[in-house]
Amino acid sequence: MTVMNRDFPELGLQKQDCMEMSWIQSVLYWANFDPKTSPNVLLDRTYAADFQKRKSDYVQTPISKTGDLDIGITHNGKDSYNEGKVYGLMYFKGNFDRLVRVKTMVDPQNLFRNEQSIPPFPAKSRIYRK
């Protein structure tokens, strides 16, 4: 709770919004089983999961994930950081540069990308941004 409220205060997360569970219990929960169910039910390959569209109750203001290309795109070239910053600051607010640092560490060549993905820092500025 402390970390979530420190890093994401805009969520307004409260203790009653949370259910503490293990990873496997969360898998059961999202597969529409009671989290106390034996994980062995997941081994049944004949089980037809009832996948549904879901929403997160803790999101106060909807965030469009359909690709608002009108607010900006990156062409994934040498200026991708500056292009990405245009829409990145709108989508991710104060987290944009932090996400760019992670992207730069994990995918510096920008292999995993689309027109509105998080860009890595330009190669010549990487040593100054750590």
Automatic annotation (TrEMBL):
It comes from the Eukaryota. This is Berberine bridge enzyme-like 8.
